[in-house]
Predict the 3D structure of the following.
Amino acid sequence: MKHTILVVDDETDNVDALERLFRKKYSVLKATSGKQALKLLDANPAVSLIVTDQRMPGMTGVEFLSESMDTHPDTVRILLTGFTDIDSVISAINSGQVYRYVTKPWDPVDLANTVDKAIERYEMSAELKEKNAKLELALRELKTLDEAKSNFMILINHELKTPLTTMVSFLGLLQESKLDEEQTKFVSRISQSTDRLHALINDSLELVSAETGQMPVKNSGINLKKLVADLSKDYAEALDKKGMTLEVNVAASDVRTDSKALKSVLSRLLDNAIKFGHENSTIEFASREGEGDKVEVSLVNEGKSVKSDLISKILKPFSLDENIMNHTKGTGLGLSVVQAVLRRLGSQLEVQTPKGKFEVTFSLPAD
């Protein structure tokens, strides 16, 4: 589709000459005054380029171009002028009304090249405008998504936690009642289900809070050796049940980050390692000096091998593929919550799957 250009000059011969110069490549509109040119613009919204003379009776070229900005702000403008009008030209260029000026008498080859470059500029501006529009749309959609996540947090906090609290309260009353064997079995299953639902709600809240930046971060000095020692006590029963041992090798012990967030990360990683690790195996926790004043933290357990192309799926929330890490239970949120929290802390979880092992690493600032 040809671009449309408008040529304006009070001399009919000049207008005809410009039409002959450009008509093979472009659709050419002709006007012999600024007033006539404005009417043509009103009737033709898709004008890519205006080429106008400066010295015209009634309305100068600069005056015409200034008025044309109201209806055709994106159209490129070229002014034909003599050296005596240079002050007006400079003023028009500085105000952004003119892309180029060409002195009379013009050289046809030079003017044709100038027009071609002006059309290229128009195309690039149109493309940039389209891309900016798409970016603005994407930004609005992103803001809408963030708002949806915030509303989701409100929904979970109130609409789900409130009835759950009621269920837990009445469940407590049932557990204190005199129950026969079958009733005890039913109440036990209800209790397990409420525990899972409670975990799902808390996991979802932590995930959304971290991803939307609403999770507060208060950095302080933390001793990894002490933190892991405390966690090993919390998980002593689970480790003993599977005959597993936790081996700790802390070469770099002090980090600076949010203590609550780090405890959540390490708890989830250790919980995963116990759940999916082999019985009677060893879980290795280690920390060492990393690059750029960082401490690299790693946790390795012996377990079922995971193909590298499935790692990204593991890190996605609500992935419940039974072929991945034997996920027959849980919410599929564990590692995705870890990843979201670590990103909030300015870090990232890296997963490696050497033969017979599952290794996760991340880095934190040294204290």
User: Anything to note?
Assistant: Confidence is low (pLDDT under 50) at residues 322-331. Residues 108-176 form the longest helix (69 residues). The chain has three domains: 4-106, 145-211, 219-365.
